[in-house]
Amino acid sequence: MVVCICNAIRESEVRDAVRNGATCPRSAYAQLGRRPRCGQCIPFAREIVESAVAA
Ligand code: FES
Questions:
Q1: How many CB atoms lie within 10 A of CB 10?
Q2: How distant, in Å, are the alpha carbons of 17, 36, 39, 40, 54 from that of 21?
Q3: How far is the CA of 36 from the centre of ligand 1 (A)?
Q4: Which atom of ligand 1 is nearest to the CA of 5?
Q5: What is the pLDDT of residue 55?
Q6: What DSSP letter does each residue of 10-24 carry, written as one string?
Q7: Which of 6, 21, 32, 43 has its CB surrounded by the most CB atoms within 10 Å?
Q8: pLDDT tens-digit profile of 1-55?
Q9: CA-CA distance, 54 to 38, in Å (whole number)?
Q10: Is the CB of 28 under 6 A from ligand 1?
Q11: Pocket test for ligand 1, best of 2, 13, 40 (most atoms within 8 A of CB)
Q12: How far, in Å, CA of 55 to CA of 36, rounded?
């Protein structure tokens, strides 16, 4: 599933970024060499980060 339309970031990429140390959407996106643009994805991305951290 695509999380961030502006950057075409997939949920699996966000989860991988968390495994590599990201703790928030911004740091996860930074790891992918991208950064938030419109910001609409941030609440959803945060949920994914939190669930990945908890897993
Ligand atoms: S959808 Fe992620 S910054 Fe716009």
A1: 14
A2: 6, 18, 21, 23, 13
A3: 6
A4: 1
A5: 83
A6: EHHHHHHHHHTT--S
A7: 32
A8: 999 999 999 999 999 999 999 999 999 999 999 999 999 999 999 999 999 999 8
A9: 27
A10: no
A11: 40
A12: 24
| Amino acid of residue 48 | I
Rounded to an integer, what distance in angstroms lies between the CA atom of residue 39 and that of residue 45? 10
Q: Is the CB of 2 under 6 A from ligand 1?
A: no
Distance 29 CA to ligand 1 centre (A): 10
For the question of whether the overall pTM of this predicted structure is more than 0.90, the answer is yes
